[in-house]
Amino acid sequence: MNFIKTLLIVPLLLSVQIFAGHHEDAQVSKKDMMANIKTAKSWIDAGYTNKDDFLDVVKKHMADDGYNYPGRFIGFGFNFDPSNDEMVVDWVIENSPAVGVLQSGDTFVSVGGIPASRENRENGVLSFTGLPGQPVKAVVKRDGKEVDVSFKRGLVNPRYTKAQVMDNIESADAEDWGADEYKIVEVAANRKENVVYAWTWHKFTDDITGLQFEENQVTRFQFNDDGQVIARGDMSEEALVQSQLGFKVSR
Fold this sequence. Notes:
Keywords: Signal. The protein is of the alpha+beta class. The chain is about 20% helix and about 35% strand.
């Protein structure tokens, strides 16, 4: 499930995104809409089955000025690769609490006094969850020196450019790609808004716990007049997934 893990933002608690509509009187032709539905299905199929195919689909069908919206959450707003032993900031999400505090390349030494080791991340000892506005102190290594930082949790509304999406795919492990099972349950289209909705079901095995989990997901594809994906986002059952893996949301 690396294609999901490489897009991980800490913590991923909510996967909801609202987009602006097409707002044009003219409707997309039936022929063009059928082509868009085909693109959406190929995007989903490749995402669940093959890294190279998925990279090709995104490269071909995502607009150069398009964005992927993985969902809002309460947190800090930075990305890192959880498969690495060290917790290194890949990039900071725009307009997030981490802006002006963290920099790309920062390596976490500790968070709240707890060492930022891979073991502590995976067993839940090192946690980034909490209430909005709650401050957290951390130590990062920057340019060879340890730096004390402090920031507060807040609403993060991330979006990824086409280049960032492709970089995430390329960094994933092809041998550890894809779902145990999946199916496209239903597809619906809105010709006026040039939007395709796809309801999917999937089952994965978690790399850390070895437990299987399943969930439903609704993905929204917004197309431009050239038939390319200008915006993609999804709604998923994240709380259900966490419950199946033995976690719970508590205050």
